[in-house]
Amino acid sequence: MQIAVSGANGFVGRTLCSQLCDTGHDVIAIVRRSGISEARAHECLIADDNFEGIADGMPELGRCDVLVHLAARVHVMQDRMAEPLAAYRAVNVEGALNAAAAARRAGARRMIFVSSVKALGEGEPGRPWREDDQPAPVDPYGISKFEAEQALTAFGREKGMEIVIVRPPLVYGPGVRANFQGLMKAVDRGIPLPLGGVEARRSMVYVGNLADAIRVLATRPEPTEGVFHVSDGDDLSVSGMVRAIAGGFGKSARLIPVPVSWLRSLGRLTGRSAQIERLTSSLRIEVSRMRKDIGWMPPWTVSEGLAETVRAYRTGR
Prior knowledge:
Strand order of the largest sheet: 3-2-1-4-5-6-10
CATH superfamily of the domain at 2-174 and 204-232 and 285-298: NAD(P)-binding Rossmann-like Domain
Pfam families: Epimerase
EC number: 5.1.3.26
InterPro entries: Epimerase_deHydtase, Lipid_A_modif_metabolic_enz, NAD(P)-bd_dom_sf
Radius of gyration: 20 Å
Mean pLDDT: 91
Protein name: N-acetyl-alpha-D-glucosaminyl-diphospho-ditrans, octacis-undecaprenol 4-epimerase
Keywords: Isomerase
């Protein structure tokens, strides 16, 4: 198949393009900078974040069967934009619609839109989120992702294009940055962490598992559309995650059992309530549709994924 991937040189995009090439598909890497995506892919350069410049036909693309849309304005903890929601909408909603229109003109019958668990909300409704739950996003990023899901579903219904929405939770793996990288650094240095009392469970997905699920959904010959949750299927507690990372380093986790109420009080005093709330609250998703409807199981276990992530961190990959 001829599969176009936007955001092909990103964290998930590189792994996905590699898997698609390994399984014999022709990949068109839609990127803004040349030379840093999968070497076996054909590059299609774009000039803007919201795909406006290629919405009218995407001549560089030629023909494609499926578009996987990974490109997005990602979640920013301390967003200094004057109107954050407008900035997210321009890229995550308008950009996704422009990309869908261009891909349809290029012959694509299906679009895989990679959304986010944040389209559902910041916490869970007392149980893991299901695919058919009513989302309740809170922050501008989550709102824009949910609005994009709705807009693309309407577009697909009107234009006869299959729209598949994938909602991953926290994605980790070789090359992961931000908070997960900071956590690995702290564990590696033996810094005591006040997380021993945090038993909140968080769904996660290894980047290789996410890429495999996207590949399966993109190349499935049967008609496929709707919302799919993807995770490793083994939701660790926050303290359990730290212990697993420490095990990958061959070290003991230095966890201090600080009560969660104390951590939340500290968050209010330091102006970091949102970060502490995320750290101490459960956020899990069910993956029933991927398992029951598609028959997909994650190729890597959590322990294997974390071990590979730590190995890459230690070798500087």
